Amino acid sequence: MRPTLKEFKKKALSNPEVAKEYRELSPAYALRKKLIKLRKDAGLTQEELAEILHTKKSNISRLENVNSKISPKLSTIEQYAKAVGYNLEISFVPQTH
Predict the structure, then answer these.
(1) Count of H helices and E strands in the chain?
(2) End-to-end distance of the chain based on CA atoms, in angstroms?
(3) pTM, rounded to two decimals
(4) Burial of 60 (0-12, 13-18, 19+ CB in 10 A)
(5) Number of domains in the chain
(6) 8 is a domain residue
(7) Which domain holds residue 63?
């Protein structure tokens, strides 16, 4: 029987190296998920958002892709946020060890 995703994640995160990598990638993954949600909540397709931002759909796709190796500029994220009706707010939280 195949393990559930929850079981697989628990087992994978028991490996300290995997857990460290997961923690390091979590902010980028969460950002991309949030961008997609905001765009969809605004009722926009990638094509429509690209038109608003005067760019190509492929650039929006790459920005939203959780596997993308490209780190977007802060100004790009600000423009994206404004295009979907939001202002960008950044916060910092203490690290937990």
Answers:
(1) 5, 0
(2) 35
(3) 0.74
(4) buried
(5) 1
(6) no
(7) 27-92
